């Protein structure tokens, strides 16, 4: 009962903030609303008994990724004239976006109404997870069954560093 | 289950209440005698030199990028730390491989001057 109430409230906050992200004129305000959207999603993860993902959502997305977003806004540094100008040039984009959005909405609605979800319960039930602990279970699986993807993740991070250095530092060394 | 998060809720309420009440109280109690000096942007006492809306150097973005990458490295350490004892030596070795790859990465950034501010 309480969880349902929290779900509805946080879901509404997430949706309203996501709409605000799109409609804000100032990109920094959009970034602030995006943080609120991500924090609301973290609460939804808690309701799904995924506490580890909730903590990561706040730490990595609301913390680190948002820093990148704000830096991109600062790097581009749109003045107010850039944001306000060119309003009339987007008629084609706006109409096509509305039509495509309505089609997407209709498809999602039809699928949601028509589909009856039925599945068998998996190995990791909420009771099992709460007995062991969410983070412990993630750790156990990540470092035993999924150890290869975990090691590959370090290679992936290395590749990201290479890309960043080569793109941003190319003028240092010829 | 949700009762465990009541402290976080209390913290949230206190933080929001503090921020909002500070704005309201300062608006109610403060004197409003604006002058040109008071309304000018405060920059640690130094006279402002031009607008703040300048394009920032990509160097800031590079530092932020490094921060995100090593932040994600730390994220992997949390689940490892809670099951470290049950993993025994195997856990130590696999985390050592992970850290060594990222140390090579760190050395590469250092060598290419990624931490230098030129």
Keywords, please?
heterodimer; A: 174 residues; mainly alpha; 8 helices; B: 118 residues; Methane Monooxygenase Hydroxylase, Chain G, domain 1; 4 helices; NADH:ubiquinone oxidoreductase subunit 3 (Chain A) (chain B)
Can you tell me about this structure?
The complex is a heterodimer of chains A (174) and B (118). Chain A is built from eight helices and no strands. With 174 residues, chain A is mostly helical. Chain A is globular. The termini of chain A are far apart. The model of chain A has no long low-confidence stretch (mean pLDDT 85). Chain B has 118 residues and is mainly alpha-helical. Chain B has a domain at 55-118: NADH:ubiquinone/plastoquinone oxidoreductase, chain 3 (Methane Monooxygenase Hydroxylase, Chain G, domain 1, Up-down Bundle), CATH 1.20.58. Chain B contains four helices and no strands. In chain B, helix 3 runs antiparallel to helix 4 (84-111). Chain B starts with 5 loop residues before the first helix and ends in a 7-residue tail after the last helix. Chains A and B meet through helix 1, helix 3, helix 7 and helix 8 of A and helix 3 and helix 4 of B.
């Amino acid at each position: 009962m309480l969880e349902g109430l929290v779900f509805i409230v946080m879901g509404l906050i997430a949706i309203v903030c996501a709409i605000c992200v799109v409609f804000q004129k100032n990109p920094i305000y959009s970034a602030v609303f995006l943080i609120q959207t991500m924090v609301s999603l973290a609460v939804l993860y808690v309701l799904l008994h995924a506490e580890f993902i909730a903590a990561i959502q706040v730490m990595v997305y609301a913390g680190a990724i948002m820093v990148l977003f704000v830096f991109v806004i600062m790097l581009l540094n749109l003045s107010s004239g850039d944001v306000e100008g060119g309003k009339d040039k987007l008629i084609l984009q706006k109409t096509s976006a509305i039509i495509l959005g309505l089609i997407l909405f209709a498809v999602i609605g039809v699928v949601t109404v028509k589909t009856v979800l039925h599945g068998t319960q998996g190995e990791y039930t909420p009771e099992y997870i709460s007995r062991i602990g969410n983070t412990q279970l993630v750790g156990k699986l990540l470092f035993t069954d999924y150890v290869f993807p975990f090691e590959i993740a370090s290679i992936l991070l290395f590749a990201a560093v290479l890309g960043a250095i080569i793109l941003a530092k190319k003028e240092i060394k010829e | 289950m949700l009762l465990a998060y009541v402290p976080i809720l209390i913290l949230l309420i206190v933080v929001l209440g503090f921020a909002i009440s500070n704005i309201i109280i300062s608006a109610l109690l403060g004197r409003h005698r604006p002058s040109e000096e008071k309304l000018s942007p405060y920059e640690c006492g130094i006279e402002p030199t031009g607008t703040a809306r300048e394009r920032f150097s990509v160097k800031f973005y590079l530092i932020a990028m490094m921060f995100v990458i090593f932040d994600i490295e730390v994220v992997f350490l949390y689940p490892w730390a809670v099951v470290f004892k049950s993993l025994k030596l195997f856990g130590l070795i696999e985390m050592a491989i992970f850290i060594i790859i990222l140390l090579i990465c760190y050395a590469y950034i250092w060598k290419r001057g990624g931490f230098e501010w030129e």
